[in-house]
# Entry
Amino acid sequence: MLRRILGLDVLPGSSPQGASLLFAAVLAVDGKVVEKWREVDLDKIVEIVSDRNVEALALDNVYELATNIDELSRFLKRFPRSPRIIQVTFIDGETVSIEALCALTGICSGKLDPLQTAEVCALLAYNGVGAEALVFEEETLIRVGRGRVPGQGGMSRERFKRNIELQVKRKVREISEALRKNSLDYDLFIRKSGEGLTGATFIVYAPREKLNGLVKNEDGHELFVRIEPVGREKIEFQPLGAKVSYKPLTEKYLIVGIDPGMSTGYAVLDLNGRVLSLETGRLLGRGDLMRRLYSIGKPVVIATDVNPPPAYVRKIAATLGCQLFVPSRSLSIDEKRRLALEAAEAWGLKVKTSHERDSLAAAYKAFLYYRPLFEEVEKEGEKYDLPVPIDEAKLLVIRGKPVSIAIQEAMRKHVGLRLPWERFEKFSAGTEIEKMQGELEFLKRVVEELVHENNLLRHELRKAEERAQRSEEALKRLLQLKELGKRLNPEFSKMEARIEMLQSEINSLKSVLENTILEEKRLKETMYSVVLGEKIAVLKLSRLLDKSGLRAQYLFVDKELPEDYLFRVLGEIKPPSANLYVFFRNQHELQRVKGKLPIGTIPLSIDWVNGVEDIGDFVVLPIEEIEKALSRQGEEVEKERLRRLLVDYREERRRSMGRV
# Structure
């Protein structure tokens, strides 16, 4: 059960498409309200959730937070630990208004303001009302790679490159061991390079929070580790307390050939050998592949072209509960070409990649293995006067049932018969007369069950018609009440909505005005400091590039330029009889041009200056801080001069010793 829930309701006049998105918020702990906020933005929501260990956000409409799943995904990734998103109005696949839920539960009445709605959402979610909006799969991506790629060079470059790639390999081994120790299932895709790895991708079959304390994000010079949840294609809703599960969209049985790797090929055939799909996916995890297969039908055979089968194939067959087809020996390239060509030409397809070829060859090889049994099932099924579910019988044959038993059990399942297994075994033994008598008895029972089922369905139909009539009458009464309310007070609701919208606009304008006043006060204080000589305003170089003939004694290089162009611009800007003080954004930029600047140009790093203010076209710097920076730079220059003298002395001593 969720204990700490933050209820939210968007304020009037605010929406995800607007300039500002504001909510009323109420925090409930164990079903009791502990804090309320009349106005919060998304940044404040992130802060509240993080500081107070909130487990879930509850709303009456998740699309108040974001207009689509991509925006909602980006919002959830801002949290150190993503909260669950609950839509309390989504019940049994239908959306119910918050007012209707109030009437049903009795926790509120009348028209609710945003703060009251937020409170109701939090309390309803605590009591298990609503559905969770699923944004991420129960899967997590971990990417490991080189932090930087070595530039041009000789042997030292190769050593450096090998060192980084070996570090990546060690990090991948370290993550693999952590996942195995904690019994977390995963797929691993690697990119090899010599003895090391240039990169690797883990697909871990667990939510992001399960990796907390096991693997962490890293962003170093040599390598990086990035962890992110796997997003869904669309928002899906799951009743609170239910488990995430996937089911085939159809009962069409499938034979699937898989060729795993960095690019995974998969081919899908039905039990008649028809090719339904032939695709390749890069870094295709088992979860993603299973979802793709379920969109086509129900896999019953998973096939591979190699012996022994890859772990990826074994795991997906076990997860889906499928028969695993492995050839007696690994198929040769020529065999795979022949099998793939035969299957593709039969259905007018073109094989584009070697992964598609290998997966199609594996699937078609499995179909050819089972085809004699399938043909026997079809032939045996023709003996019955009743329609036989052939694919169901083929599935049972795949699972090892004899053909005659498979057909009879498929028919029994089709009409809902529950006869003892021993009764069907008699059909495959004894004399022809006994077989016919057994089959006749079986068909009689089929007819009896169909008549009984027909009577049950008629009874259920009558009950459904009565429920539909009652629902229709209740709906008519609700519509009549709604129309009556509109006639009694047609303008009140409009005026109330207009007042709320205007109040929201006033609050927004107040906030803008307060910020403007604070900014004006800060600018005045800065201007007085400049006038009194405590600070100087330094013009940004980007404002001078399109002007000619301007001179300046202080300049801030706020963008990167080619060295030759920068030196020419500085020479034009420098006053003829004074020094030019040039401030760079950091030490790296300063060191890159140090010693190359025009005479009379004094470079400084803005890193050395405290109290920097960025105001439009200028940066404002305290004069006292500039003097400290100049002093520090003088010390740095003197240190460099002494270091060079020491190096020169050692070189001279080495040469003199060599002459002796």
